[in-house]
Specification:
With 92 residues, the chain is mostly helical. The chain is built from 3 helices and 3 strands. It has a single domain, classed as Arc Repressor Mutant, subunit A. A 3-stranded antiparallel sheet has the order 1-2-3. It starts with 5 loop residues before the first strand and ends in a 19-residue tail after the last helix.
Length: 92
């Protein structure tokens, strides 16, 4: 079986099917991008994040944010089309 690996342009985020089922992780760790973003979204102080994950660097955190931004940057948004309301027929 051939392992496919992809990396971000900065090379800090890697995707390997053999690591965490292919979730994007910080290079050289098993720290998923998702976990870093979750902590940031919960307004965890960056210093606390660095203390909790000593192998993580500020550049790694920035790479996680850039990775997430690159995913949503090209998303096409399609407005929902309103469906006519269904009316109930009176029971006869």
């Amino acid at each position: 079986m051939v392992t496919k690996r992809r990396a971000t342009p900065r090379g800090r985020i890697t995707i390997d099917p053999e690591v965490l089922a292919g979730k994007p992780v910080v290079r050289g760790t098993r720290i998923p991008v998702e976990l870093v973003l979750k902590h940031l979204s919960q307004q965890l102080d960056i210093e606390e994040l660095l203390e909790a994950f000593p192998r993580l660097t500020r550049r790694d955190i920035q790479a996680c944010v850039e990775y997430a931004q690159s995913l949503v940057e090209g998303e096409a948004l399609y407005p929902a089309v309103a469906q006519p309301a269904r009316t109930r027929r009176a029971a006869r």
